[in-house]
Amino acid sequence: MDRNIPRPYLGIVVMLGAVWGLSEAGLGMSLRSCASSLSGSIMTGVALFFIASAWALTRSTLGVAQVIIITSLFKMFDALLLSLPIRH
């Protein structure tokens, strides 16, 4: 009688999205000055790491989509703070 009880993954998703969003903002600002030609490839690796982590922890496409949405909100907030256009 061992039941598979689904565990809530909202905390995991919010944590992963927040860490990914803050790393995108921080690394993006620091890489712009020293490695502007490599920043896209480095940030793509970071993005794939966090997407894979979200998939491994939640096993749900909804969890992965929520992580991407949270990260996008962090990036838009970063663009607002740096006075960058959102479509930049």
Written account of the structure:
By secondary structure, this protein is mainly alpha-helical. Helix content is 75%, strand content 0%. It is built from three helices and no strands. The chain has helices at 10-34, 39-58, 61-81. Helix 1 crosses helix 3 (61-81) and helix 2 packs antiparallel against helix 3 (61-81). The protein starts with 9 loop residues before the first helix and ends in a 7-residue tail after the last helix. The relative contact order is 0.18. The model has no long low-confidence stretch (mean pLDDT 81).
Keywords:
single chain, 88 residues, mainly alpha, 0% strand
Entry summary:
This protein is mostly helical. It has helices at residues 10-34, 39-58, 61-81.
Beta-strand fraction estimate:
under 5%
Number of helices: 3
Radius of gyration: 15 Å
N-end to C-end Cα span: 55 Å
- Structural class given helices, strands, pairing? mainly alpha
Shape: elongated
The biggest beta sheet is recorded as: none
Provide the helix percentage: over 70%
What's the SSE pattern?
Answer: HHH
E-strand count: 0
Low-pLDDT stretches: none
- Write down the overall mean pLDDT: 81
SSE inventory with pairings:
Elements lengths: L9 H25 L4 H20 L2 H21 L7
